[in-house]
Every structure is written in structure tokens, then in C-alpha cells.
Amino acid sequence: MQQAGTHCTPGMCRIGQQSFDGFGHQMESKLTCIAAALALGLEFVHLPFVGKAHGEDPQEMERFMDLSRVFRRFARPMRKVKRFPSSWSTWPFATPCRFCMNSANLSNTCELTHFAPSWLRKIEINQSFRADACCAERVYVADNCFDFMNCHADWPGLWYRARPAMQAHYHAVPKPFAAWTEGFQPPPREHGAKVVLHVRLGDVGERRLPPGYYSRAVRAVRAELGGGDGRASLLFRLQTNGWPENLRTLFEHPDVAGGHVVVDHSKYSVERATGLGLSFHRMVTADVLVMGRSSLSMAAALLTNGTVYFPRCWDQWRRPLPHWRLLDCCADPHAVPRGGDCAGEAKWKRRKLSAQRRIKNKRAQRRGAAGRRAVDE
Fold first, then answer.
1. What is the pTM of this model?
2. Burial 133-151 (b: 16+ CB within 10 A, else e)
3. What are phi and psi of 290, to 5 degrees?
4. Using an 8 Å Cβ cutoff, are 199 and 250 in contact?
5. If 0-12 CB within 10 Å is exposed, 13-18 middle and 19+ buried, where does residue 368 land?
6. How far apart are CA 129 and CA 370, in angstroms?
7. What distance in Å separates the CA atoms of residue 180 and residue 191, rounded to the nearest whole number?
8. Phi, psi of 197 (to 5 degrees)
9. Tens digits of per-residue pLDDT, 251-293?
10. Cα–Cα dist 318/326, whole Å
11. d(CA 286, CA 307)
12. N or C terminus of the chain: which is more exposed, having fewer CB within 10 Å?
């Protein structure tokens, strides 16, 4: 093996991705790096999912995506080398910034990362750098390739070229049965388009979208596709990690109330919690996906063939694909959410729990999980 700091015989450039955030961040990051590798003629080497930022089981996520089926898995004697400079894990901010939601600016961020230039940009434009950096035993690893995907002039071609292969792989790996009518009382005998709304709450902070955003999305989808005139009713599934009590605000909207809507809780619901894999699969396979400001939403949107509604107030964090539909986050197209809510509109109701109540809920969740495992066994 070559000693550090010495020149080596140029070989295939290899890049990888590894981070310790939730599945959504890791999945979106891997997709961006796969597209970057394809665009630059590099080999993408898969490093397994790690960490439990939101309580996920990384081994379950590894089986769910099975990226080792199509990409070489990192193993010795390959060496991990930090890819630097690269985009930040807190993209588009250099450091965590809790109350900077509406100050993101992709133009400024791209100047500080991609055009600085970043490692990937150097590989693209500097043949000398590429010849020196690309050694067969090295895998250059970073948190993500967001700078390349959001700043490169060839967007959206970067992803459009990578998408067919990634979609084929996604559907080649066995996925859970989507069970679209599960939870509806009574189950509809027939239904129209399947619509998923990703309502990211919990620890999302400033990226939380207001209830009115989802209300307007439901109204727009119903106006285009929805029941009446002899057409079957739409099925709405709401994927969320929020407390059930928090969602009452959303269901107070006349656009949402009284419709065929089932809530799939990723946690906080002992009776019927939905696993992350099933939630993500429903997002990918839905006829319509209404995104949240979330990496999980973005990863699903990149893989789906369905209609995608993208929150317009997120366009300084991520670049939507041209065929996606931009939806105003507030009723006033020029307004932006503050603290996750819009001025003059209904606000999310915050659930406040006593310490004793939180302990009881956690115990109930554990008992429910243990009961489900016992049934499975």
C-alpha cells in the first residue's frame, strides 16, 4: 500500500458518502453522490447506513435499500480519505443555524462551496488534481454532495441521467406491501389517485411547514384529480412523526376535514405506528407526493414517478426538478413561514406534556413495540 503523502499510480477515482443523521439525510446524500459519480466518471463505493438520529435501525435501512447489490461495498484494503473541501452537513449553512430558515441563499452558498472550488469541482476542471488524487486504494468520503447537485450548471441533467438506474434498483429490492387502504373505515371498494402528504414535525424546527400549506395542497390535488363527477374518491395518507394532538389544527381546515385521510404515525402512536420503510415506500410509489421541507421528502421525490408538489419557500435550500409543481407555503405568495407558521393563518397546536406523561408514553410505546414483535414471532 502506498504511504500517505506519496504519489501513486492513477486509477479509478472513488467516492463514498457517510453521515450519522437520519435515514432521510443519508439517503438524499447518497443519491446526490451517486449522481455526481456518474457525471464525473467516478466509482461510487457504498458505505453502510449508520447512526440512529431519529430512532431508526441502520441495519433495517441497509436491507431496505441494499445498495451493495449494485455498488461495491467499502472494505479493506481500501482507505477512507476525507473529501475536502466539500459541502457542509448543515447545508446550506456552514454551521447549525436554528433560526436561519428564511436567510438561506443558494447563490452565496454555492460560491463558498462548489465554486470555491470544492473537491468535486476540482476533479471536474483540474486534470492535474484528478491525476494526483485518484488512487485505486482510496475512497474519498464526505457527508454529502449537495454542493454538486444544487450548484452545478448541468442541473437537472445530473439527476435525470442517474434516475432510471436508481429507480430500477429501488424497485428490484423487495419492499413492504403498501396496503393503501389500511386504516380506512370502512375500506373503500374502489379509489382514485393515491396521495401522500409528508408532514414533518417533531424536531424539524424552523423547517416545519404551516397547516395551510397542506390544506392548499389537498385543495389543488382535489381540483385536478379528486372525486365527484363519477370519479372515485382520492386516498390521502399523511406520513408524520408529529403527535396526534398536533394534527388537529390541520384537520380543522375544511379542505382536509371530512375527506378520505388516514394518518400514519412513525412514532407516538401505540395502536398503529408505521415503520419508516413503509412510510418511505408509500411516498415513493404514491401518485402524488406533497413534500415537506425534509431530506426524507427530497429523497422520495427524486425516486418517484408521481406528481410532486415542492414547497416554494424551500427553493433556496434545494433545487426542484423542472417537472415538479411549486406550491406557495403561505396564502400570500410573497410571505414566508416564521417559526413554521404563516401570519394570519391557523397555527400548529403545540403539544405540552408533563415529565410524568412523557414517561408513561414512552413505556406505552415500548409495550406496544414488544407486543408487535411477539405477534411477528
1. 0.89
2. bbbeebbbbbbbbbbbbbb
3. -100, 110
4. yes
5. middle
6. 54
7. 10
8. -110, 120
9. 888 888 766 788 888 765 545 567 889 999 999 999 999 999 9
10. 12
11. 8
12. C
The pLDDT mean for the chain works out to 87
Neighbours of 171 (CB within 10 A): 13
Looking up cell 389500511, which residue turns up? 182
Neighbours of 249 (CB within 10 A): 19
In 277-349, where do the E strands start and end? 288-290, 307-311, 325-327
User: Can you state the percent helix, strand and coil of the chain, rounding each to 5?
Assistant: 40, 15, 45
Cα–Cα dist 219/215, whole Å: 6
Helices (H), 66-135: 106-112, 119-125, 127-133
What CA–CA distance (Å, rounded) separates 30 from 36?
Answer: 10
Are 311 and 333 contacting, i.e. CB atoms less than 8 angstroms apart? no
Phi-psi region of 159 (alpha: psi -120 to 50; beta: other; left: phi over 0): alpha
What the block records as the C-alpha cell of 288 is 402524488
Sign of the CA dihedral running 364, 367, 372, 375: negative
Three cell numbers written together for 201: 414535525
